[in-house]
Amino acid sequence: MDPEHATVNGRTRSIRPQWSHRELADELRTRIRSGVLRPGQRMPTQAKLADEFGMERGAVRQALRILQSERLLTNMSKGSPATVAPDLGLALTGPGAPPQPTMVGLGPRISEAFAQPHVEIEALCLTAVSLQLAVGEPLRQIHAGRLKPATVDVRVLLPSSDIDLAFPARVDAPADSRLQRRWLAQRNAQGQVLKHNLLALRATHGIDVHITFRALPFTPPVKLYLLNGSEALFAYYTLTQREAEIGHEQVEMYDAEGTQSMLFAFEQGAGLRDTTFVEQSQLWFNALWETISSELTLTPTS
Question: Which of 8, 49, 65, 199 sits a CA distance of 20 to 30 A from 22?
Fold first, then answer.
């Protein structure tokens, strides 16, 4: 017999170490995100979950309450199983949701921001790649006639080309100028695509669009997106060591994959902590914009 299973009253049951309520919440969250548990579907009963995972029902209830607080479950009551939330898009990516990789979490929030008549987006980041990708869906919605904001104002803070970046950097030779040139080319190209795609809305749809870039005198260790003055999305750039080809040479470098950085969402009005975080993030961004940042044009020498 499998050493992790035993027969109890004629049934095979797991005898793995006791699951904690947080481990069960993680497992059920994974099933919901992967589609094993579908939107609107009834969850297994607490008794079935307790039996499957070898847990007490009290611990199962704790796990379900965690998912309810994350808006992944609805209709929780004593008499019937909970239901997987029908609107998982908002539950998985909206304010108050668990952190998501930037590629997953940013797009839906940008689309929600574009549903307003006056769109204001502010970003502080290493490059504009995540923002450029995230605006793709609302642009498609605008071209399809499903969205039409009156104004779009975008402000972006990026590192200056005049500084030595803290990362990306070679492990054995931090001052390799080839890494700096490669990052600068990416920064400029992504920023130019973002600017071109947004400004094109003036001619195609008569939308009043303004987009401005300014340069920071430091390498940002975090990324921040502020949406319509009511949401703040925050992520850490987590450095890893990896190999990359630079000038036909394989080099070890420290870098951060910004599109995979875990994005935390905060919403004004969702409690004192969230409201304060949004307000302080806006103050911080404005202070950087108005004091130590400098003019930036997206050319190879700026």
Answer: 8
Which residue from 226, 257, 237 is spatially nearest to 123, judged by alpha carbons? Answer: 226
158 within 8 A of 191, measured Cβ to Cβ: yes
Across the range 31-41, mean pLDDT stands at 82
Neighbours of 296 (CB within 10 A): 21
As given in the structure block, the two tokens for residue 256 are 């951060």
Buried b (16+ CB within 10 A) or exposed e, 156-171: bbbbbbeeebebbbbe
Looking at the DSSP assignment, which residues form a beta bridge with residue 155?
Answer: 122, 212
| DSSP reduced 3-state for 101 | strand
Backbone angles phi, psi at 11, to 5 degrees: -115, 145
What is the C-alpha separation between 36 and 33, in angstroms, rounded? 8
Neighbours of 221 (CB within 10 A): 13
Task: Give the torsion sign (CA, 141, 142, 147, 153).
Answer: positive
Which of 5-19, 53-67, 207-221 shows the lowest mean pLDDT across its residues? 5-19
| Residue-range domains of the chain with CATH | 5-90 (1.10.10.10), 95-295 (3.30.870)
Average pLDDT, rounded, for the chain: 86
Q: Is it the case that residue 221 has pLDDT exceeding 90?
A: yes
Mean pLDDT within 274-290: 97
Whose CA is closest to 256, among 179, 173, 176?
179
The token pair at 1 is 């017999």
